[in-house]
Amino acid sequence: MYRFNPQPKPVKPDKKEATRVPQISSQQATRLAKYVMARVLYLKEHPMCEVGSCYKHSNQIHHKKGRAGKLLLDTKWFLACCTKCHRYVEDHPAWAQDSGYSVSRGQKMLGGGLAWGKFIF
Ligand SMILES: [Zn+2]
């Protein structure tokens, strides 16, 4: 049954076009592009796995000190390795540190954190 409504239906505003938020910033995209080049060059210069006495072809880069910030592009901390050795290094951090395949970033950060903590507490 029709009921009288004194107010007309509200007019919906035109929908805005959906804008997508980029998944990575342009700065990060540039950084990753530089990394891809550095990675390819490093693997070309180090075609064999550098872990232990492995003689397989290297196809991955292990970042001895992680990939944070400038470490991503610092080839000083790169280690060319095969998939199997890379997995082993990642799964056995204590062994990797003892063998020199990983360097702890935590010690420096822990020292800084404690020094910083003195100011807080
Ligand atoms: Zn290997």
Describe the structure.
- About 40% of the residues lie in helices and about 5% in strands.
- The chain has about 120 residues and is mainly alpha-helical.
- The protein has a domain at about 50-105.
- It is elongated, with a radius of gyration of 26 Å.
- The structure holds zinc ion (ZN).
- Zinc ion binds near residues 51, 56, 81 and 82.
- Zinc ion binds near residues 49, 51, 56, 81 and 85.
| Major beta sheet, strand line-up | 1-2
Question: Count of DSSP helices?
Answer: 4
H/E element sequence: HEEHHH
Question: Averaging pLDDT over every residue, what do you get?
Answer: 84
Q: What's this entry about, in short?
A:
This protein is mainly alpha-helical and 121 residues long. The chain has four helices and two strands; from the N terminus they run H-E-E-H-H-H.
